[in-house]
Design goal:
By secondary structure, the chain is of the alpha+beta class. Helices cover 17% and strands 35% of the residues. The chain contains two helices and 13 strands, in the order ββααβββββββββββ. The strands form four sheets. The protein has a five-stranded antiparallel beta sheet, with no helix packed on it. A three-stranded antiparallel beta sheet has the order 4-11-10, with no helix packed on it. Strands 6-7-12 form a three-stranded mixed beta sheet, with no helix packed on it. Strand 6 and strand 7 form a beta hairpin. The radius of gyration is 29 Å and the shape is rod-shaped. The chain starts with a strand and ends with a strand.
Length: 156
């Protein structure tokens, strides 16, 4: 026989010393607990998914590559990311080349679905960078210059 007294929120049995609980009463309480806790734990509006937890714990990934001078290069990313920044080690983001009267750009960025800087084509798991052979409108994209080391920071 279920108890006369119940918990305020879940309606679970609160037994008195004189009550005689039955197996059915415990099974009923367990079913209520299972339903309420199960619904709570699966509520992704208030709990992080496994993927979201990974992004919180490790919000960035990095990879580097050595430029080979080719016009295009595909760089595989170590994880799915939503945005990237690419830059050349030991080189300013932009350098004025007085010999060619153009700016050589050694940095690029992209945000998935929101656009990219010149020379960057980005998917969630890879990016394609370019190395211009000549200037266009006084600028060159230099994201794969031969023998230069580049770093990619990917944000989850």
């Amino acid at each position: 026989m279920p108890s006369a007294n119940k918990t305020e929120r879940l309606g679970l049995n609160l037994w008195e010393g004189t009550d005689r609980p039955q197996r059915n009463d415990f099974n009923s309480d367990n079913a209520i607990i299972e339903q309420v806790l199960g619904d709570h734990m699966e509520d992704t509006d208030i709990h992080l998914t496994s993927d979201e937890k990974t992004r919180v714990k490790r919000p960035m990934v990095t990879v580097s590559y050595l430029g080979d001078g080719e016009a295009e290069r595909v760089v595989t990313l170590p994880a799915v990311v939503t945005s990237v920044i690419i830059f050349c080690d030991s080189t300013p983001c932009a350098v004025m080349d007085s010999a060619t009267d153009c700016v050589r750009n050694y940095m690029g960025f992209s945000m998935y679905g929101a656009g990219s800087s010149a020379g960057v084509d980005f998917t969630l798991s890879s990016l394609t960078v370019t190395q211009d052979a000549e200037a266009t409108n006084g600028a060159m994209t230099c994201l794969n210059e031969d023998s230069k080391t580049y770093r990619v920071i990917g944000f989850r």
